[in-house]
């Protein structure tokens, strides 16, 4: 099996952009509830990046915060009799094999072609397709350098936390001056990725703009964007959801909204057409 191909039998649930952390207690509780539901309905669960709000290294599991203990125990309970897969995002690109092993999960590469009952689907976190966001692509270029990650991970956890907080603050400031367009995926990059892997469906997260899109001019390619999770807002509106793959049907589920379901038999299998 190629490292970027994953054959999944049975139902698949995919979620991303949970942003779990000490400042998001209600979102953590919603995720624990979601995992409980997934136990009874999904054979496979893929968490597609930005699982954590800022991951500063696997070694934090040596003395985990209570919220992380709760999440890790729930993930281990799920993976004790289901298949669990973790993909890294731009907030948790430092997730490693140690944590994956800790929760009995498989760590996925930055993109993977899922071979599912609904056909072939290209999946990634999605940040790598935001090519117009040059500041971000520069950031991504440097923080993916193994030597820089090694240098960072050699720092005390307290210093790593301060650096992460600084990066988060820098990011929040930077986004204030960016147009929403450049913080979305570049359609041409999506088409190129789908054609490179002979697939007609992509699932990604990162943009926090959940929807099902045709690509302009390429109506045979469909892009599914995963919901971001946020249950902390004072107005009580909870953001969140997931994509399910059952039989030949893909469904986008968002809290408080109608499910968007599509029978993928028509277009998804480029290889079989
Ligand atoms: O994350 P979000 O949603 O706010 O915005 C993202 C892009 N920003 C990022 C930065 C992350 O939020 C930072 C997470 C910290 C993780 C912990 C590890 C920290 C250091 C590891 C060193 C090996 O991803 C944002 C995009 C937006 O998505 C939409 O796509 O626009 O990109 C930017 O804001 C680009 C900025 O230039 C990022 C500036 C970060 C400051 C870097 C200083 C710290 C580097 C430390 C090096 C040792
Ligand atoms: Mn992201």
UniProtKB/TrEMBL annotation:
Return the broad EC class.
hydrolase
Q: Which pathway does it operate in?
A: Glycolipid biosynthesis; lipid IV(A) biosynthesis; lipid IV(A) from (3R)-3-hydroxytetradecanoyl-[acyl-carrier-protein] and UDP-N-acetyl-alpha-D-glucosamine: step 4/6
InterPro entries, per database record: Calcineurin-like_PHP, LpxH-like, Metallo-depent_PP-like, UDP-diacylglucosamine_Hdrlase
Q: Where does Mn(2+) 2 bind?
A: 50, 90, 125, 206
Which residues are listed for Mn(2+) 1 binding in this entry?
17, 19, 50, 208
Question: Per UniProt, which keywords does this protein have?
Answer: Cell inner membrane, Cell membrane, Hydrolase, Lipid A biosynthesis, Lipid biosynthesis, Lipid metabolism, Manganese, Membrane, Metal-binding
Record's bilayer topology term: Peripheral membrane protein
Lipid biosynthesis in keyword set: yes
Please give the function described in this protein's UniProt entry: Hydrolyzes the pyrophosphate bond of UDP-2,3-diacylglucosamine to yield 2,3-diacylglucosamine 1-phosphate (lipid X) and UMP by catalyzing the attack of water at the alpha-P atom. Involved in the biosynthesis of lipid A, a phosphorylated glycolipid that anchors the lipopolysaccharide to the outer membrane of the cell.
The record's NCBIfam families line, in alphabetical order, gives: lipid_A_lpxH, PRK05340.1
PANTHER family named among the record's database cross-references: UDP-2,3-DIACYLGLUCOSAMINE HYDROLASE (PTHR34990:SF1), UDP-2,3-DIACYLGLUCOSAMINE HYDROLASE-RELATED (PTHR34990)
EC annotation? 3.6.1.54
**Which residues bind substrate per the record?**
90-91, 133, 171, 175, 178, 206
Q: Which domain of life is it from?
A: Bacteria
A GO term, aspect molecular function: UDP-2,3-diacylglucosamine hydrolase activity
Instruction: Write out the similarity annotation.
Output: Belongs to the LpxH family.
From which source organism is this entry? Alcaligenes pakistanensis
Q: Where in the cell is it found?
A: Cell inner membrane
Q: Does the keyword Cell membrane apply?
A: yes
Query: Which cofactor(s) are needed, names only?
Result: Mn(2+)
Alphabetical GO biological process terms? lipid A biosynthetic process
Output this protein's name.
Answer: UDP-2,3-diacylglucosamine hydrolase
Cofactor remark from the record: Binds 2 Mn(2+) ions per subunit in a binuclear metal center.
The residues covered by the Calcineurin-like phosphoesterase domain are: 11-210
